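Appendix C. Worked example: Mitochondrial import inner membrane translocase subunit
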Amino acid sequence: MEDSDQAVSKMKDFLYIYNKMAEMCFYHCVDSFNCRELTPAEDSCIEKCSSKGVAVNHKLMRCYIDIQPEVISKRTEEIQKQQNKLDSIKSTNS
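Step 2, the predicted output written as structure tokens:
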């Protein structure tokens, strides 16, 4: 059950990022609603904008993967310190 919740959460995160990027590129690149098709300039702008968005996302994910073990280690140390503190308080009260 937990794996499916995690998969849903990851999908929501992905869709949020994708939708924000699409919205940003749309507002930045689409100038006119006079025709159904994108103009060549709009099409080129959308292509560049979305490529940059994907590249930035990949770079951020690489940084996150590099930093995440350190963050987990520090958090584990903090939890261990808190647990030790609670254990010492319990032992002095006993």
